[in-house]
Specification:
This protein is an alpha+beta fold. Helix content is about 45%, strand content about 25%. Strands 1-2-4-3 form a four-stranded mixed beta sheet, with helices on both faces.
Amino acid sequence: MYSLNKSERLCSKTSTTELFLKGSSINEEHFRIVFLASAFDRDVYFKIQFIVPKRHIQRAVDRNLIKRQMREAFRKNKIILIEFLKANAQQLNFTIIYQISEIKETILIEEKIKSLIIRLIKKL
């Protein structure tokens, strides 16, 4: 339940393109989330992708660190989203984009991801 499996990751190029063309977005202080909701038809309730742009964080080591922090923060708080999607029989493709040029602490990233999830639920 508290893992982030390969089946829950958004890897398909066509799905990613469709997400950015048709999806809506929410901006938080350090993050942006792009999402596309649909009716439930698969075995997973969501597919997620984490993006840290090279223009903000140049070193690959730092980008990977931030992505690990984001994945961990989402993994801890995803149960909120899953319960909402189960109750409404929805499926969600979304991406979380890091938008600042400095590395933040894990605790701050976790708080922002949690508030993003709550705002996403309210918008759905």
